[in-house]
Amino acid sequence: MTIVDKIDAGINVTLNMAFDNEQLNNLEAAALFGIVIVGRQNLSTLQVLYNHAHDDDLKSILKKAITDHTKPLVEKAEKILNEAKADCPEIHFADRKLYDTPLTISEDARFSDREIALLLGNMARASQVAVLNALSYTYKPEIALIYRDTLETAFDFDYRLLKITLEKGWLPHLPKIEH
Q: I need a surface site. Which of 48, 92, 108, 119 has the fewest CB within 10 A?
């Protein structure tokens, strides 16, 4: 998307927000509800994974997943639901402290850095599919723009995670097909 396209999208969203007061449809509300509940669970999981991680690069990317990706999307979805006077999920998960120094957890009781990296990749891809699915049900441009921005930053996140897993040798070796 070019800068002109982004400016045009921003203008369209602003105009729609000013003149379009149509309520959320059921599919939009359900998708936002799902983003909130799964996002809250993902935040809790990411915090646990952060505290299990030993590698500094992995801890850094986990912190970004928490503060730059998951938490902002959950907060935006909650805000939209609240503004629409729709119910937000009542379920909440413990907010865990993030420890910068590795915790003393025996090797057989904690996730390894490799396991964390692969799990983080799986969580990221599942989240992207959910956001893309939510986008397909959206008729409100301001919500569609949130999803588009989320996916754009998610793809950048995936690339950084892929680079780290390659550099650290955490990706599983897959045999090549010989012809």
A: 108
